[in-house]
Amino acid sequence: MTNVTEKTIAVAESVAPRAEARTGRLNALLDSEQWLGRLMIAPAILYIVLLIGFPFLLALYYSLSDITLGSRTMSFVGLKKFKGVIQTPLFQQSLKNTLIFTFISQAVVLVLAKVLALALLKNFKGKWLVRLLILLPWVAPISLGTIGWLWMLDSIYSIINWTFKAVGIFGPTTWPIWLGVPHLAMGSVIAVHVWRQLPLATVILLGGLSSIPHDLHDAAAVDGAGFWRHLFQITIPLVLPIMIVAVLFGMVFTFTDMIVIFVLTRGGPYDTTQVLASLSFFTGIMGGDLAEGAAISLFLFPVLVAAAFVFLRIARRAEVT
């Protein structure tokens, strides 16, 4: 019995240093900022690989083939689909609509977000309620919100038309068909998209404005700077990098989003509101031509990469300056 006890003690004494060494290495690993950073970013990398990387590679594979929704075989055709898509008038019209839809909506969003962010910096009664109402379009499901806009823009029961007619803005013969006339349809989808994107841009700019030291505002007030001089010489230059990031996020969302177009107009009337994202969906999923739909969707990739590169370079220079 004594021999067994002595052997047990000896084994325990030999195992204890190794366990302490393993515990020490584990603690050192957890205390390392390098490994902790990798551990924290690992879920994001996994998300990108599984939900973005794999579909992207699959779309690239499909775009180089002639696969359709009902086909059992597929063959490699190279860049034939890309060449065919670019030459079609519908693609060119959709590309033009995408640029118009993106740049106009982002310009309006940037101006309105700046105004709202400056207003929310002030202290007033009911400030929490105003913040809640501003955030609602971003928090609520976009499909449900867009369906609400679809009812408000209806050609017969439009509450906008009835209200404007009741207050005298519209005459007895004025009744706009918001989603049935090309320029009105484009204006309508831009307005709804601005309504959707405005909360995010406002929150981003509000965070940037809140980070400006109050000493600068006080010094400008002492020097006698007016509102516009204060805005263009102090506020905008200091938040310019954040504004560029907000515009970049908005451009990415706008280029790749098709929910507003799909619910309101489905690309009509006469494809005047068709954008590349919706055209890719209607061609690949609704039309069954997966290869052509994938080729259309991949055209967005180099455009977004170039835009991201340019905007980030500008933001970096503005931050250094």
Can you characterise this structure?
- The protein is mostly helical.
- It has one domain (85-320): MetI-like (MetI-like fold, Orthogonal Bundle), CATH 1.10.3720.
- The chain is built from 14 helices and no strands.
- It starts with a helix and ends with a helix.
What's this, in brief?
This protein is an all-alpha fold and 321 residues long.
Query: What's the pLDDT, averaged over the residues?
Result: 80
CATH superfamily annotation: MetI-like
- Distance N to C terminus: 79 Å
Summarize the amount of helix as a percent range: over 70%
Q: Count every beta strand, where a strand is a DSSP E run of 2 or more residues.
A: 0
Classify the fold: give the CATH topology. MetI-like fold
Task: Determine the number of helices (DSSP H or I, runs of at least 4 residues).
Answer: 14
What class would the helix/strand composition place it in? mainly alpha
Work out the count of structural domains. Answer: 1
Spans of at least 5 consecutive residues with low confidence: none
Q: Report the major sheet.
A: none
Strand content: under 5%
CATH class division: Mainly Alpha
Radius of gyration over all CA atoms, rounded: 28 Å
Chart the SSEs and their pairings.
Layout (H helix, E strand, L loop, with lengths): L1 H30 L1 H31 L16 H7 L2 H32 L6 H13 L2 H11 L6 H8 L15 H29 L3 H9 L4 H30 L2 H6 L11 H11 L3 H9 L1 H21 L1
Helix pairs in contact: 2-13, 3-13, 4-8, 4-10, 5-8, 8-10, 10-14, 12-13
Q: What key phrases describe this protein's structure?
A:
mainly alpha; MetI-like fold; globular; single chain; 77% helix
